[in-house]
Amino acid sequence: MSAYVYILFDKPDENLIIGVTSNLLMHMHEIKNKISKFHENEFSADKLAYYEKYNELNDAIIRKKELEDIKKEDLVSLITDDNPNWDDMHDKILKMWDDSLKSNNIDKTT
């Protein structure tokens, strides 16, 4: 099972939130749409700045802890190296999912 470490933001370089999930697309959907009270209260930061994919959940949890222990300016550098414009990468993962469905001839409406 895949797992993801992600960093959310509300404005570039502000209010960075680091998390782990086994389903990044669904998790982002829940955050963007404030599906539960947890997401409503916890995530004023709802833009995906950065993510890493792991094969094992334990590896993602270890990486999350590493990221939580580094200085904010180092987190900002990590994000800026991969996402210099601080674009919301949610659109990128949606496109990857859509392209995957198309390449596998899967009808996403069913």
Provide a compact summary of the structure:
The chain is an alpha+beta fold and 110 residues long. It has five helices and three strands, in the order E-E-H-H-E-H-H-H. The protein has helices at 24-32, 37-42, 57-68, 72-82, 90-103; strands spanning 3-9, 17-21, 47-54.
Descriptive notes:
The mean pLDDT is 85. The chain contains five helices and three strands; from the N terminus they run ββααβααα. The protein is globular. With 110 residues, it is an alpha+beta fold. Helix content is 47%, strand content 18%. A three-stranded antiparallel β-sheet has the order 2-1-3, with helices on both faces. A hairpin with a 7-residue loop joins strand 1 and strand 2. The chain has one domain: GIY-YIG endonuclease.
Query: CA-to-CA gap between the ends?
Result: 23 Å
For the sheet with most strands, the description reads: 3 strands, antiparallel
Q: How are helices and strands ordered from N to C?
A: EEHHEHHH
Q: Indicate the CATH topology.
A: GIY-YIG endonuclease
**Cα-atom radius of gyration:** 14 Å
Report the structural category: alpha+beta
